[in-house]
Design goal:
By secondary structure, this protein is mainly β. The protein has a single domain, classed as OB fold (Dihydrolipoamide Acetyltransferase, E2P) (Beta Barrel). The protein contains no helices and 5 strands. Strand 2 and strand 3 form a beta hairpin. Keywords: Cytoplasm, DNA-binding.
Length: 64
């Protein structure tokens, strides 16, 4: 599992971005990738990365 901080998440549109702690890379997160949690800007999270149609996507996102 990787860790990071939520940079932005729009609850209405259901997507946002996480900044990976190690690489500082922005990783896309969709509401379907959340593991039963609600995330907000600046939340610390753990996640896995999968390759999506447009690049890296965060899945199994959980608050830490």
């Amino acid at each position: 599992m990787q860790t990071g901080k939520v940079k932005f998440f729009n609850e209405t549109k259901g997507f946002g971005f996480i900044i990976d702690d190690e690489s500082n890379e922005e990783i896309f997160v969709h509401v379907t990738g959340l593991a039963g949690v609600t995330i907000r800007e600046n939340d610390s999270v753990s996640f896995e990365v999968t390759e999506g149609k447009r690049g890296a996507n965060a899945i199994n996102v959980r608050k830490i």
